[in-house]
Design a protein that fits this description.
By secondary structure, this protein is mainly alpha-helical. The chain is built from 21 helices and two strands. The chain starts with 16 loop residues before the first helix and ends in an 11-residue tail after the last helix. Bound molecules: heme-as (HAS), protoporphyrin IX containing FE (HEM) and copper (II) ion.
Length: 573
């Protein structure tokens, strides 16, 4: 363990042991369900990497029997990893943290009901996914049509996340009433702001699925407008990436410095970052639609500009979390311009997972800015470059951070112990190396126009043999093998931990790893700085966010609804 230089902040004690046990249990259920989804989803990934490595394994009978087709496997991979793993992990993580941080009691029946409903939605959607009735990829663009059960299950799953929003926001409002004049503690603040952002973000997909796709898949209406559906999808679909990464930021700001033996830099700055995400995450989705007709260039350019703005709070995060790591390393004797990095606890997988995730995000974020530039978009859109981009954002920045968090969170929740730090470290480092190699191979292939979502390995060499892509193809194949090894190591450690017996009191053996702040926000609003006071009224800021998104999407959608063109569904056969 890293020697403590700064004192740890304590969360309010919970005197009711049965209540605390139940709160921890429901959190554990969310986290374990998340990792079960990731386990299945991730095992499919290396097969796809082999595909982009020029090796077609989809004619092997066992693969065919298990996955059906390349596209059925890809649909499962995208849904389980990007939609199910993330949502379940985040729902547990961002329920537990604010409740503990505020020291509030919540209604545990409601919390369990929400978990059960979310799982029910997942199971409903899983049936058509597994039987071939929802081979739609994780974006399920119409007019491709799947079984109604898929859309209904998805709606229930997303709807359940809104129940978590309700419970967390309500808990925060109760805390505000009971503690007038107090500044919301940082972790609770970040969690509430993220949930509020998600409440605005999810409206697009909720309207799409509930109002358009469910009636259409049930045959109640004759058609659906693909452009309206796609636009509503990206209303949610871009902002969802911040729903995936902000829970990781919570850890980078509040807990990672502590793992390094240091401090959070500035609580007021951190609050500003989350408020900017609340306001600006959603009205940028048209950067996924530069190639679409019937959206004017004016609106494409406005969304492009807003996309560049929303990179700013991530840049603030990079410098501020980077500074907190430097502060920690120098406090422990680090020297030199870069030499200080050697003093960081690289052998601690909880720490290294998250910092490696951040390093991957430097490249992922830079690539995102390329994607967002309408001038470059034509080169990279729909090519292998894009999966290259998002495996070092959601596939590493988010996933590797969550993998690292689980290594302390599960001991904290269950009193079990991490069986082997060495194996955990190996799994974390191989994930990072594998994903960086994967990203290199895929970005590189994309620049030569190799398409994404394509079974290129079965397309015949004629299609690609004029391209100088032998090296990136090879790199992609190798990365798939490294990542398979990494996943096996990680899940071995995780499942061994989960299946072992309780040995510790999680509260004392593995407390929530709070960091002290160099510049705290203070406790009382009356004496707090301007920035703290300006960021405290999250309810009002939430309304501003809603108005902003209506302004930035209203005219675009109004024109589409005025020119609606319904088309019937296409089914795979
Ligand atoms: Fe993206 C497509 C633009 C961020 C995920 N993105 C995708 C898709 C996914 C995805 C899944 O504009 C594919 C969707 C599909 O299937 O079609 N993305 C951006 C931009 C950002 C961005 C501008 N993306 C993310 C995040 C994701 C994610 C976050 C998931 C978690 N993306 C796009 C665009 C497309 C797109 C276009 C459509 C492309 C197309 O044509 O289809 C920005 O938010 C990025 C800002 C980030 C930074 C980096 C900050 C760095 C940090 C780490 C610092 C590290 C330190 C460590 C300090 C500016 C915070 C130091 C350590 C030491 C030891 C020294
Ligand atoms: C797609 C490989 C882990 C999310 C892909 C593709 C490859 C791949 C090659 C592109 C397929 C195509 O466009 O035809 C891998 C490997 C992994 C891995 C080798 C690690 C073992 C993950 C993780 C996540 C993720 C952890 C998210 C948490 C996605 C998504 C897609 C995708 C959302 C897009 C699906 C679609 O186009 O509909 N993966 N992946 N992957 N992957 Fe992964
Ligand atoms: Cu986006």
């Amino acid at each position: 363990a890293t020697p403590l230089i700064y004192p740890i902040r304590e969360v309010p004690a919970v005197s009711d042991a049965a209540y605390l046990a139940s709160l921890k249990k429901v959190t554990q259920y969310y986290i374990v369900t998340a990792f079960l989804a990731l386990f299945i989803g991730v095992l499919i990934g290396p097969l796809q990497a082999l595909n982009y490595g020029g090796v077609n394994v989809y004619d092997i009978p066992i693969v065919k029997a298990l996955l059906g087709s390349y596209y059925q496997g890809l649909s499962l991979h995208g849904v389980l990893n990007a939609l199910v793993f993330t949502q379940f992990f985040i729902s547990g993580w961002m329920l537990y943290l604010p409740v503990r941080d505020l020291g509030m009691r919540i209604n545990m029946r409601f919390a369990w009901f929400t978990y059960a409903l979310m799982t029910l939605g997942l199971l409903m959607a899983a049936v058509p996914l597994l039987t071939g009735g929802a081979t739609l990829l994780y974006t399920f663009y119409p007019p491709m049509q799947g079984d109604a059960l898929f859309y209904i299950g998805a709606a229930i799953m997303v709807g359940s996340s809104l129940l978590v929003v309700g419970q967390v926001v309500n808990t925060w409002l109760r805390w505000k009433r009971e503690n007038p004049g107090r500044v919301t503690p940082l972790v609770a603040f970040m969690s509430v702001a993220t949930w509020m952002m998600w409440a605005v973000a999810s409206l697009g997909i909720v309207v799409e699925v509930v109002a358009l796709l469910i009636p259409w898949s049930l045959g109640l209406v004759g058609g659906v407008d693909p452009l309206i559906s796609k636009t509503l999808f990206w209303w949610t679909g871009h902002a969802i990436v911040y729903f995936w990464v902000l829970p990781a930021y919570i850890s980078w700001y509040a807990f990672l410095p502590r793992h390094a033996g240091g401090r959070t830099v500035s609580e007021p700055l951190t609050r500003l970052v989350f408020v900017v995400f609340l306001l600006n995450s959603v009205p940028v989705g048209i950067h996924h639609q530069y190639a679409d007709p019937n959206i004017s260039n004016l609106w494409k350019n406005i969304h492009m500009f807003l996309t560049f703005l929303i990179a700013v709070p991530s840049l603030l995060t990079a410098f501020s979390v980077g500074a907190s790591l430097e502060d920690a390393a120098r406090a422990r004797g680090g020297r030199g311009l870069f030499g200080w990095t050697l003093k960081l606890p690289w052998g601690n997988a909880i720490f290294s997972a998250q910092v490696l995730a951040m390093i991957s995000f430097i490249a992922g974020g830079a690539g995102g800015i390329v994607n967002a530039s309408s001038t470059f978009s034509g080169v990279v859109h729909n090519t292998a470059w894009i999966p290259g981009h998002f495996h070092i954002t959601v596939g590493t920045a988010t996933t590797l951070t969550f993998m690292g968090i689980a290594l302390w969170l599960i001991p904290h929740l269950t009193g079990k112990r991490l069986p082997s730090m060495r194996l955990a470290s190996w799994s974390v480092w191989t994930w990072f190396i594998g994903m960086m190699v994967f990203a290199l191979g895929m970005h590189w292939q994309g620049l030569y126009g190799v398409p994404r979502r394509s079974q290129v390995s079965a397309a015949g060499v004629e299609a690609f043999n004029n391209l100088p892509i032998a090296l990136p193809t090879l790199l992609t194949a190798i990365s798939g093998v490294i990542l398979l090894v990494s996943a096996i190591l990680y899940f071995y450690v995780l499942f061994r931990m989960l299946l072992s017996g309780r040995v510790d009191n999680g509260e004392t053996a593995t407390p929530i790893p709070y960091s002290e702040a160099i510049s705290p926000a203070g406790e009382n609003l009356a004496t707090a700085g301007k920035l703290v006071r300006a960021t405290e009224p999250l309810m009002a800021l939430w309304l501003v966010a809603l108005v902003l998104v209506l302004l930035m999407y209203g005219p675009v959608l109004a024109r589409m609804f005025a020119n609606m063109q319904l088309v019937p569904g296409w089914r795979l056969y």
